[in-house]
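I have been asked to look over a protein record a colleague put together. This is what I was given:
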Amino acid sequence: MKSAICLLCLLILLTLWGCGLIIEEGREVLAEVGGDPIRLNDLMLRIRELPFEQRARTNDPNDSTRLQARRAVLQAMVVEHLLEREAVARGIVVPDEEVEALLEEREEQNTATNGVKETVPDATTGHAHTHHGGEGHSRQEIEKTRRRLLIDKLLKQQLSEDALRKYYDEHPELFRFSPPLVSCELLVVDSSDKRALDQVHRKTKEEGMTLGAALASLKDKPRIIFAGVTPPASLAQIAPSMREKIEMIEVGQVSDPFFLHAEGKDQYAVARLVDRIEKAPFENVAQQIQGRLYDEFIDALKQRYTVVYHEDKLNYRVGH
């Protein structure tokens, strides 16, 4: 009898000890953001939410592939924690109404697309649940949406158009073209039509016409090889004989005629400078500036809140 009781007690202790190991293993700290831990359980829950292909890479047989995928997920979680902490520190709030409105909007979109209410797995229980509006959303889903909105508000504040334009104006050297880009109205004819092109050049220069208008005014038209406006291109990409003439004129002026040699043929040409672009337009580089400011912002937050990684814990085994 005593042996049976002792054996039972031993089994209970072993069971409790095993459960303790599982709980403790899940609570292993993989990173800290300002002292707040991101645990193994947090990472595993996030991985379960990933699309299948990304999720599969986090359990790839290849050590390098597996660790790289897990590291990427962990780093994304760290960034989210940083942004959330900064948003809270700035006093940014997300009312319940905004959270509910976004959840309902997503649900309506999903219903319109699939014809059914959205069914999603609960990251806490692993079981699927179906939204029925209002109170049908899980607490975890509500908090996840709230965090997303909180971060969105912070980034809209930090990366506003005013902030992007300020950076653009204060760092002109980063967006200057050297050499500049030029766009020209170009007329190219066969060298045998030199006299006709000289007439076009004279009319354009004396009467302030475009090359096209001057060409249209001629009774005897030359054989045209090219007539039109060239897209912006660097002066370095333009034929030397043309570049030499373009560098001598201002926007709106016409160059002296020049010879070109292309495809084994001698050609005669004239160009009117339409535009000289010294600096990339703001609209063309706004996204680049946004990326640069975002990276600088994240680096500053890492310094402010102190991020510590424990990546040696990333090589866990699923089901261990």
Notes: Confidence is low (pLDDT under 50) at residues 16-23, 118-134. The domain at 178-279 is CATH 3.10.50.40 (Chitinase A; domain 3). Strands lie at 29-33, 36-39, 119-121, 128-130, 176-190, 224-229, 233-234, 258-262, 265-279, 307-309.
